[in-house]
């Protein structure tokens, strides 16, 4: 018997991209390293760059709410500017070369990062296998130019039937508007009706994806990637707190896209075998 509910009844999967398919925390940490290098050796970001990523994400999410029409590359550059501004007080005066060094990142690598940050090792193969059974759709907070580069680069080899971005929608997840746009898009393009239970959402972020999924009644899969333990929460949200508050309703949990694809293949194979015996 399966340890998971039936996954064979869905016709389409919608995916969060960054954090789920693309390792955005590691990619962003790398892009933040020029700033971290200017900080005193005792600064906690040296030992744990994820702290810098989390603070950066605080700024980014605030901008999602206050400037929902700001393109994601501009959001990233502004978040970097705010992060660097916060740290200027602890950067040694002799190293205060932000204009010629670190702040150049504002116009370049940070804003362009989502187009080149690496996919997780399990992502592309997992998507290929999932694509044998479902339509695959991206629902991302990123901008059009970056997602185009990501699909052609780190995600090359995987098939996507549609890509919906915050730039096209005009707002950022967790806004329900982004999910309404998704529902309308998959019904128009593929005849997939979420109200009939034909769409399944697949995501790492609890706050941006799974909380609104529960609010609007969208069934979902949590790709935890370590986020089910406090040391792995990262930017995805506090799992225990959100669970205690009753804000989560995902029905499946896997650590990786690869593990999710394994279970999907197992269930479809078992269903095929059972039909042979009928």
Automatic annotation (TrEMBL):
Domain of life of the source: Eukaryota
Pfam families from the UniProt entry: Hydrolase
Keywords, in A-Z order: Hydrolase
SUPFAM superfamilies documented for this protein: HAD-like
Gene3D superfamilies, alphabetized: 1.10.150.750, HAD superfamily/HAD-like
Keyword Hydrolase: yes
Methyltransferase as UniProt keyword: no
InterPro entries cross-referenced by the UniProt entry: HAD-like_sf, HAD_sf, S-2-haloacid_dehalogenase
Molecular function via GO: hydrolase activity
Protein name per the record: Haloacid dehalogenase-like hydrolase-domain-containing protein
Source species: Chaetomium strumarium
